[in-house]
Amino acid sequence: MSNNGTALLEIKNISKYFGSVIALQDVSAFVRAGEVTCLLGDNGAGKSTLIKVLSGVHKATEGEYLFNGERQDFDSPREALELGIATVYQDLAMIPLMSVWRNFFLGSEPTKGWGPFKYFDAKFGKETTTSELAKMGIDIRDPEQTVGTLSGGERQSVAIARAVYFGAKVLILDEPTAALGVKQAGVVLKYIVQAKNRGIGVIFITHNPQHAYPVGDHFVILRRGQVFGDFSKEEIPLEQLVQMMAGGADLEALKHELEEASQQGAAEAAGLAETAEAIGSDLPELGETPGEQGES
Ligand SMILES: Nc1ncnc2c1ncn2[C@@H]1O[C@H](COP(=O)(O)OP(=O)(O)OP(=O)(O)O)[C@@H](O)[C@H]1O
Ligand SMILES: [Mg+2]
């Protein structure tokens, strides 16, 4: 098991009950700055419940929550956000008919003293949006473009850039690649790596080990509300991660389906290999080093 001495965020023995339903039981995990922690698990494993605890939506029934080594007990998501724990939900809370720059600043007031939105300077808003997106390698032709005209991957990317700009220290992404095709998923994976390289502790929730593996530093596998495995990348090859996700015995039952899907899977794997290569070749160019960011 990996050393968690330098954890930015850590949970110890967290349980969450909904009446008699045990959604999480005795879950311990940690997130380091400048690393991508992948949270993997099947439907109903407890992934969303865990991130809701991390983001202050739910209170844990039991257990300890530490941020920067200090105990936390959030009463609302706002309190988590104020500490820099930002969550990008799948539906993104963006308004399709509004421009990219208006959406960029929409509802993101983690910094105190900004005042109401109407005092906001449009010129500053547009310029900041364009330059912040450019820093993430996203080239927006016109910040007046409506969000509805962006692709799913671009929308996710804007949401990630927005969280980074507003000073996220921990960035939680709930299934950001789930609805995306291979190419667009690749784009989002690239921004995950960029956020990590800016020193953010990224929590990447996914069903898909093929998406997790190229970008992840550390993998936490949830099963029926419990931690089924916790590995650093060196400790686990992709094949084993896939197998753990499917879960030993269940794998036999899945064999049939997997065989049917294997042709499609081969095509996807080839696409992801390309993506992984693209990510790899991008790494040396990224100027930011962990720790430089965070005062915005
Ligand atoms: N508010 C709630 N009330 C009762 N049970 C809940 C509630 N939220 C989650 N659960 C239960 O907790 C378990 C874990 O759910 P959760 O949504 O965390 O799973 P998940 O890993 O995110 O699944 P998926 O991949 O399908 O999104 C499920 O059995 C679910 O029915
Ligand atoms: Mg979920």
> CATH topology, anyone?
Rossmann fold
CATH class label: Alpha Beta
How many whole angstroms does the radius of gyration measure? 19 Å
Helix content: 25-40%
- Strand percentage lies at 15-25%
Structural class: alpha/beta
Could you say what the CATH architecture is?
Answer: 3-Layer(aba) Sandwich
Would you give an account of this structure?
The structure is a single chain. With 296 residues, this protein is of the alpha/beta class. The protein has a single domain (7-98, 169-285), classed as 3-Layer(aba) Sandwich (Rossmann fold). Helix content is 39%, strand content 22%. It contains nine helices and ten strands. The protein has helices spanning 47-54, 77-82, 100-105, 122-135, 152-165, 182-197, 209-215, 238-246, 248-282; strands spanning 7-18, 21-32, 36-41, 62-67, 70-71, 85-88, 170-174, 201-206, 218-223, 226-232. The strands form two sheets. The chain has a six-stranded mixed beta sheet with strand order 6-7-8-3-9-10, with helices on both faces. A four-stranded antiparallel beta sheet has the order 2-1-4-5, covered by helices on one side. β9 and β10 (226-232) form a beta hairpin. The longest helix has 35 residues, at 248-282. The model is unreliable at 109-113 and 284-296 (pLDDT under 50). Bound molecules: adenosine-5'-triphosphate and magnesium ion (MG). Adenosine-5'-triphosphate (ATP) binds at residues 18, 21, 23, 41, 43-49.
